Amino acid sequence: MYSPKEVAVNYLGACETKTQLPLLRMFLLACLAGVFVALAGVASTAGAATIENPSVAKVVTGLIFPAGLSMVLIAGSELFTGNNLLIMGVLQRRITVGAMLCNWVVVYLGNFAGSVLIAALAYAGGVFSAFNGELAASVVSIANAKVSLSFSAAFIRGILCNFLVCIAVWMSNAAKTVPGKIMGLFFPIAAFVIAGFEHCVANMYYIPAGILQSGTFGMVYENLTWGGFLLRNLLPVTLGNMVGGVVLVGVTAWYLYLAPERDRVATGK
């Protein structure tokens, strides 16, 4: 496996590759990541839908959901939360702030498109009708719980979530084999799901799915609307994810593993 310093150095090359992608390719790769994460959301919700014990249900969900990041990293795609680590390339002066922000915007929109697409397809295909409607009820309940969080709670859960997601990306990059990469990412992702933290791209699937399904059942929830989704959840969770990924992991890792080297090069020591 690669050492933490080697992971940091190797990621600088990824920063350049990611920001130099043609915009259409970048967007389509981001759509794929949204699809992968959303499909993991469909499967993990289905796996836990009929489990009455909430703790056991969370564990089952946590064991299934890492399939999403596995597909993102192994199949190849662009995920906004993982790409928060691009700040390392900026701090090391390998990419510009403008290139980083362009990647974030394009990838975020692509993730949104892919995630909502899966929510719409799952709804249109009757996937949520499984288990005599228990899956549909679970989908709506999950979405309503997410939009019912306070701004501060959603923000803080977003920080904690993307700290773990970026650590998962980091640990996966430390491995040299596919099984090693999957094992590296598995436990941090399982931990954030079981703990109930908030991931903006996952929520781009979970909440639209709940909005669509609640309309079919004639369920009315005050906050479970598109406006509630964007303002009460997606905004604070995205901001929290950025703090967790950019500051707690990206800046910290750059300082620990790259900044001393750059300083030595600059001073000739």
Commentary on this structure:
It is built from 12 helices and no strands. It has 269 residues and is mostly helical. The chain is globular, with a radius of gyration of 19 Å.
Gyration radius, in Å: 19 Å
Topology order in helix (H) and strand (E) letters: HHHHHHHHHHHH
Based on secondary structure, the structural category is: mainly alpha
Q: Give the percentage of residues in beta strands.
A: under 5%
The total count of helices amounts to 12
Fold blueprint:
Elements: H1 4-19, H2 23-48, H3 54-64, H4 67-76, H5 87-91, H6 97-124, H7 134-147, H8 151-174, H9 178-195, H10 200-217, H11 226-257, H12 259-267
Helix pairs in contact: 1-11, 2-3, 2-4, 2-6, 2-10, 3-9, 4-9, 6-10, 7-10, 8-9, 8-11, 10-11
Pick out its properties.
globular, mainly alpha, disordered C terminus
Task: Briefly characterize the structure.
This protein has 269 residues and is mostly helical.
